[in-house]
Every structure is written in C-alpha cells, then in structure tokens.
Amino acid sequence: MNAPAAPWQATILTLYPEMFPGPLGQSLSGRALAEGKWSLEARNIRDSATGKHRNVDDTPAGGGPGMVMRADIVAAAIDAATPPGDSRPRFLMSPRGRPLEQARVRDLAQGPGAIILCGRFEGVDERVIEGRGLEEVSIGDYVLSGGELGAMVMLDAVIRLLPGVMGAADSGTEESFEAGLLEYPHYTRPREWEGRSIPDVLLSGDHAAILRWRRREAERLTRERRPDLAAKAGLAD
Ligand code: SAH
Description:
This protein is an alpha/beta fold and 237 residues long.
C-alpha cells in the first residue's frame, strides 16, 4: 500500500504571523487545515533579526522614502524555515511579480507546498530575491500595504484544489479560467424572482442543449468582459 501523501505544506515568512491562519482558518480551507490536508507554519521574520533593536529594515540605498527589508535578515529567515532537501518553491509576494493565474495555482496544488515571503515597507533588498531564487508573484495591479493578504489569496486558491478538499469531485474543473473562459451564469430556486425567470433551457432536462447554452454564455461573457482572454482562447469578435 502507498503511504498517505504528506500534507501540502505552507510556510509563511512575515512580520505579522498572528494574521495567520486568519480567514484561512474558516470554511473550506479551515476544515481542510483541521483535517490535516494542508499544514501551515507562520514564522516571524523578526526572530532572525540580531542586535538590540531587532531591526529588519533599513533606509534605501540611494535615498528616497520608506524602508527596505534587509537581505541578510530575510535570508536568515528563509534559511531557518528551509530544512535540507526541501523542494518547495519559494515566493515573494510583489506587485512587480508575474500575475497569479489559475494554471500556476493548479501546478502548485500538485507540488509539495510553498514558502511565501510577505514584504512590508517599500519591499525587500533585491539581492535576497536573486540569492534565494524567489519567484515574485502579484495578485493584481494595485499596491497592498503588505504581502500577507496576497499570500492568503494565493493559498486559498491552491487549497481548494487539493485532493479531497472540495465536495464534488468535479467542481473546480468547470469554473472560470479552467478552459480559458469566464464561467456561465448560475441560477437556483425560486423559478421566478422579482419578475425574472430562470432561462427555459436550464429547466428543459436536455443536457446537450444545456451544455451548448452554457458554452455560448461563457464565450459571450468572456468576449464582453475579458477580450484578452477571448483572444487567447481563439474566440472571434
Ligand atoms: N514599493 C513597492 C510596493 C511595496 S508594498 C512597489 O512599488 O513595488 C509592500 C509589500 O506588499 C510588498 O513588498 C509586497 O510583499 C506586498 N504587495 C503589495 N502589492 C502587492 C500585490 N499587488 N501583489 C502581491 N503582493 C503585494
């Protein structure tokens, strides 16, 4: 018999470990955490700081506003969190990073876990990004005050895809982005609500017709709302 798979392992490096699990302790991800389907370790970067004041940041070389997280302290925090042979990818949450996409999320869910560094202040010294091979990931084109919420977003997206976490075996394969399209509209009872009805085809019992309708609606919504995705999926205008 195969040994049970080791749980997907998340290590967060942050100045605010008490923020975790936060919302990830609720609902789907919270239940999965309690059931040991994934594990979470939030480590305080400040524990790797030395000196009387345990400073983790310093003023930017070259001048300018704000503070920068020090390469030596951050590297020590990463090293302390990484046992020999640990093959997990290492990330830095960063508005400069590659935008997080469902394909990358799916990839990650198939791996052993992730080590995620959460920036604060102006960000981190460039040398530690290079020196520790950090992959920069962005959750969107806006600036957060810290990487913690970004890390939670990334973890939430991954955890729901781990084996046994979502209820229906196939929910997750029909969703937005899975086929490069946005998802079709959903309806449930009541059949009539404020003068609006559920589209007849969904009540017809004709599964082929329902599939066609859903596909058409997914294509229509994607063209209207996300011409970039429509072009990638090869949909004509
Ligand atoms: N000066 C930086 C912004 C720093 S914001 C710049 O202009 O690029 C502080 C921290 O918040 C960052 O180090 C990063 O960890 C996190 N952060 C901010 N916006 C983010 C985003 N869109 N995606 C992921 N992390 C983000």
